[in-house]
Amino acid sequence: MADETSDAVAGVDELMQRIAHEYEALPRQLKSVATYIEQNRASVMMDRTSDIAASCSVHPSAVVRFAQRFGFSGFSDLQAVFRQAYAGQGASATSYQQRIRQLIEAKDGSASPDLGGAVAREFIGACRNGLDELEAGLDDAQFDAAVKMLEHADNIYVIGVRRSFAVASYIVYALQHTRKRVHLVSGFGGMYHEQIRSVKKGDVVIAISFAPYGKETQYCLRVAQQHQAKTLVITDSQLSPLARHADAQLYVKEGSAFAFRSLTSTFCLCQALFVALAYRLELNVEESTDPGEYDD
C-alpha cells in the first residue's frame, strides 16, 4: 500500500514537472489554470470544473483544454491522478474556514472572546499540516545541493521582502554563527540596487519569496545571475518566476487558516539548512553563541 501511495505521489510530481516545463508556452488562460492546480494540489481532486474556472476567471472549457493539453481526455482524468495521491488529505486542508464558521454559528453567530482557543487550535492544525507536507515533499537532492552551495560560498546574500522579511532576517542571524560573510539585503532606504550590486562569482544569493512574488526579490535574483553568483530559491511553486533558473530550489507550501498563511514550515526549513551546514562545517553551534545571550 505504501508503494502504491508513493507511486501516486510520484505521478503528481511528474505531471507538475511537465506543467512547469511547458508553463511559459501556455496561453494566458491555461497559465491561470496551471497556477491554480499548483497552489491547490491537495484539493483539486474534489474541485468542480466550474469552481476552478470561476477562481481562474476563465470559461470551464479552458479547464478541459488544459487537461487535454497534457494528454488527458478530460479534466476528471487529470483529477484522478491527484485523487490517488491525496485521497483522505483534502478534507482537512480545505475545511478550516467552514469549521471556524461552524464554531462561530454555534456561538449565536458572533465571534466571541471565548472562541480564541478554538481559533488557535485551528491555526496550529494548519501549521502541523504544513510541516507534514514539507516533510513529505522535501527534495533531498536539492536540499543537499543547497547546503553544499552555502558551504563553498565566499559571501552569502539573503533577500526576502514583506512577509518573507522575517524569515530572511532569521536565516541571516543563524548563518552569522558560522564564519561565513553574510549580508541581509534589507532594502532600507530603497537601496536594493546598492546592496546587491557587489555580488560576484563565488557568492550565493538566497531568495525567499511566495506568491505574488516580490519584484525586489526578482530583481536581486537577476543581478545575482548576471554576476554569475549561485542562487538558492525558497518559494512555493515550480511555476514561481524565481524558481526556473535557480541553481537550487526548495519548495514550501505553508499551512493556512482564515486566509492567514503561517511561516512555520519556512522557518523550519531555514533552521534545517543552518543545522545541516553547521554539521558540514563541523561547527559546534553551542560554542558559537555568546555566553551572555539568553536565547538562540
Automatic annotation (TrEMBL):
A Pfam family recorded for this sequence: SIS
Xref: InterPro entries: Homeodomain-like_sf, HTH_RpiR, RpiR-like, RpiR-like_SIS, SIS_dom, SIS_dom_sf, WH-like_DNA-bd_sf
- List the keywords (alphabetical): DNA-binding, Glycolysis, Transcription, Transcription regulation
Top-level taxon of the source organism: Bacteria
GO BP terms, alphabetized: glycolytic process
One GO MF term on file is: carbohydrate derivative binding
Which parts of the sequence belong to the SIS domain? Answer: 146-283
Per its UniProt record, what Gene3D superfamilies does this chain match? Glucose-6-phosphate isomerase like protein, domain 1, Winged helix-like DNA-binding domain superfamily/Winged helix DNA-binding domain
The residues covered by the HTH rpiR-type domain are 13-89
Which PANTHER family does this one have? Answer: GLUCOKINASE (PTHR30514), TRANSCRIPTIONAL REGULATOR (PTHR30514:SF20)
**Name of the molecule in the record:** HTH-type transcriptional regulator MurR
